[in-house]
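Quick one, tokens below. Sequence please?
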């Protein structure tokens, strides 16, 4: 690393030895200032913060954690299993090699997993998600819109865990698949478009929670509505059975959340 790489206001902390599990790791902690910084990591497990300005962060080797923070940043994980956080602004995240996790944050972001089995979270804003090689996971957010460019049927997974109990609506226009969420009043909001492929609703993973006995269960809601009331059927799908609980109540009179232990 040369001094030309580090602009005024950048703070550097060198960590000679960090005990992580049974392995000894080396790494850097770099913190950018208010300017447009160019911050390259080293061979170890680095932590790099862009701070203010339009920054370029490079993890290089090791399992790195990169934070773009404010403004419009470019984050490159490099080799290793990296975690990239865009933060605010319109950011570009590229995982590189390894099993990476990419979080766009606020703004309109572009996320590319690269090689390996990656997880992409566009989060808020209008985001573009490209998995690249490997078996990737695309997570949808009720507060944003994702354009998924390279969904591979049978390998990749689309998740819709955080849509607040709304119903998923999946439509195909002959070229692209559109994913929307519908509230109990029938209002629909598109949260994703999957380019150049037909995706069935059954391919999109729902809310999947872990219970106390380490099994998994999914929670789905089906509604039948009239002008004032609606009936709900709660489907609890475990690894071995499907249980149905029927509940009816006046929607204008009661709002509640139940926790069920199976």
């Amino acid at each position: 690393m040369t001094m030309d790489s580090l602009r005024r206001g950048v703070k550097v902390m060198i960590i000679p030895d960090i005990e992580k599990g049974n392995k000894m790791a080396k790494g850097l902690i770099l913190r950018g200032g208010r300017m447009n910084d160019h911050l390259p990591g080293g061979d170890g497990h680095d932590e790099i913060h862009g701070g203010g300005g339009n920054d370029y962060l490079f993890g290089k080797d090791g399992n790195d954690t990169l934070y773009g923070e404010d403004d419009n940043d470019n984050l490159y994980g490099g080799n290793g299993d990296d975690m990239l956080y865009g933060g605010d602004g319109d950011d570009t995240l590229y995982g590189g090699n390894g099993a990476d996790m990419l979080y766009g944050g606020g703004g309109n972001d572009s996320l590319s997993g690269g090689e390996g089995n990656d997880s992409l979270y566009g989060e808020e804003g209008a985001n573009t998600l490209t998995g690249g090689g490997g078996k990737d996971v695309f997570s949808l957010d009720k507060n944003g819109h994702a354009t998924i460019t390279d969904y591979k049927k049978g390998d990749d997974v689309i998740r819709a865990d955080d849509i607040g109990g709304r119903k998923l609506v999946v439509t195909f226009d002959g070229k692209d698949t559109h994913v929307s969420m519908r509230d109990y009043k029938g209002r629909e909001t598109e949260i994703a478009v999957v380019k150049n492929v037909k995706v069935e609703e059954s391919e999109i993973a729902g809310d999947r929670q872990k219970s106390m006995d380490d099994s998994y269960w999914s929670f789905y809601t089906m509604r039948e509505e009239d002008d004032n009331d609606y009936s709900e059927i709660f489907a609890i799908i475990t690894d071995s059975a499907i249980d149905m609980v029927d509940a009816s109540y006046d929607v204008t009179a009661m709002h509640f959340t139940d926790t069920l232990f199976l």
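The mean pLDDT is 78. The two ends are 55 Å apart (CA to CA).
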